[in-house]
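>> received
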Amino acid sequence: MGVLEGRVAIVTGTTAASIGRACAIAMSDAGAKVIVTGRTVAGGQETERQIIERGGDALFIRHDVREERDWTAVVNTCIEKYGRLDILLNNAGESKGGPIETLTIDDLHFLLGVNVEAPFLGAKTCWPHLVKSGHGVILNMSSLTAQQPGPGGALYGPSKATQNALTRVMALEGADVGIRAISVLPGLTFTDGVLDSLGTNTERYKEPLANKIWMGEWGKSEHIADACVFLASDAARYITGIEFNVDGGGIGQTPGHSQNAKKFGLAS
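>> returned
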């Protein structure tokens, strides 16, 4: 029996070969029934197909996380189909980088809409069902950049830091009603989103960036998924309100990689 047997989860942002899909598959493998959502129908249906082919129970629903009516529809469908809701994973997120002078107020509003307003709407809509569950869990997918911002990160890191503060409030208010809330902070993780950010020729980035990670290697979506399954399970029943890093130790320099780091100009 899986550690999430009998539980029902909603996972947003599951339409690409990335962290959201990996989390949905891992939760299903652990025994949960999963509602998978996102804006791209073909990608969402592919996630649903993969889960069902592995023997799981899943349903894809098209969903714009910025729209409250979409949240209402997703949650209503979840309750109609499965009769309960135990886990909300707010994975959907957006990034926009660049020098401050090149960014616009519309860029800021867009990131706040997806990275802050959407988790708020999700928690608000799911809250009564998570209370009824008796062991409700909200996992908000954040980012290491909320703790370690860098040049070009005037919008993304701060939007995730705001999300982290929101998570702590969720945890505080949830403590008396059986809801745990946790921020999950991936470090450098090789996903489809990396291709969008760095271009298709990523080979020249992989080794120098790996040498900035303490453990000397990129994270994988499965690393984040395994952490989310643990955090959603009863094994983590005394964990709430924290920033849970899944980052190979963080960004820094380890002795074993110092020579390569110097070679690539990543250490003095």
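>> The chain is about 45% helix and 15% strand.
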